[in-house]
Amino acid sequence: MTTRVEIMNDFLAINVKPGKTIQDIVEASGSALPFGCRDGECGTCVVFVESGMDFLSDMTDKEKAVMKTLNESNPKARLACQMKIAQPNGLVRLKY
Q: Where are the beta strands (DSSP E) in 1-96?
């Protein structure tokens, strides 16, 4: 069972098993979504979850702190390097 992840900027759609990070998905797909530290510290990989938030892992304290530092208040904003697919049989749409 998988969840479909669409990276809207790149017109990519990938079926993914739960437990994979968005970073893993992006790197395997050839997306142009930028990454910096890959550890949730720099904020380079901010994406906006257009749909499917329920199929993603909860925001970590580290991720919340980075968003606060970036003054990012959009509830759809997440760090791609920190998010994981948490549930199967869904659709997640991301923009960066």
A: 3-7, 12-16, 46-51, 77-79, 91-95
